[in-house]
Amino acid sequence: MFTIVDPTAIKDWDQQIKDLPGASFFHCSAWAKVLKKAYGYTPLYFVNTDRKLDTVIPLMEVSSLLTGKRAVSIPFTDYCELLAPHPEVSRVMFDVIGSEGKKRGWKYVELRSDAGFLNGERASASYYRHTLDLTPSVEKLVSGFRDSTRRNIRKAERSGVEVRFEKSLEALRSFYRLNCLTRREHGLPPQPWAFFAKVHKEIISEGAGVIALGLWDGKVVAANLYMYSNGKVIYKYGASDKTYQHLRANNLLMWEAIKHFAGGKCTQLCFGRTEPVNEGLRQFKSGWGTKEEIINYYRYYLAREVYMPVEQGALMAARSLFTRMPIPVSRVLGLLLYRHVG
User: Fold this and answer.
1) Phi and psi for 47 in degrees, rounded to 5?
2) What is the distance between the alpha carbons of residues 288 and 283, in angstroms, rounded to a whole number?
3) What are phi and psi of 155, to 5 degrees?
4) What is the model's pTM?
5) Distance between alpha carbon 268 and the CA centroid of its chain, in Å?
6) CATH: 3.40.30.10, 3.40.630.30, 1.20.1530.20, 3.30.1330.10. Which one for 2-126+295-341?
7) pLDDT tens digits along 27-66
């Protein structure tokens, strides 16, 4: 027997799911709260009710006049495993989801993970994921770094870059200033400040996230945002001022974060999702001795009962425009558009 729940309304949700194989930060109630409050998405987590909770397929319903109505597991999330004891359970659950989606008028359901029941179905989109095992000693970790990574760390140290780990709203504002610069460099509008304000309230201030700041001559030149749960960390957002790229502050930030989370605090650091076209970012993440894997997304159109590719033509065409756009304008566009593209 399956039912639909909202994890933000279940007091002990995180405790219930923490031991399920594949559970990550993205399954936690705090992340659901952020997406629900910042963008107005409706959490619809399909779970079993026959016994102790052992099956969870988390979805968010996105309802937009611009982009239609659909379910995504989960918007603005790098990956989200289907938590089920056996592929057959996932298949049965997916049939239930499809029936519910047709009643609710969804165009499609998007899964952001592989699922055994798909039987080799072609992915709608694919990305890289890099993870680092934090259980070895610091010396062992360093030995796995690429030579260029070690050189860049030393260069940042010699240049006088200082790293601080902070949880204040002021630190988050420093990150956000750099995030706006970085998003423009990538040809994307920045996420709305209201989203990061919710991240601070629901995640950082609750002890499940931290901001790493890289300072040079008293100025914040780079910043990373890490989130963690159940001994696993994800490097969710990184930003920097390209003017100071020669300092290699990003390398020192990551190195200090590895030391910060290692030593028994956490067992794994995930470097997040990387687009196949972003070879520079892929090489940066590979340089830390990480394990590289493929993340597959599957977009199933309910009316046609077929999996189809994720179309990104409009986004790619707009990127050159965003790189030239003044930041105040792109911030307004981010505020208006993000909830429609989840």
Assistant:
1) -135, 160
2) 9
3) -65, -45
4) 0.93
5) 15
6) 3.40.630.30
7) 999 999 999 999 999 999 999 877 788 899 999 999 999 9
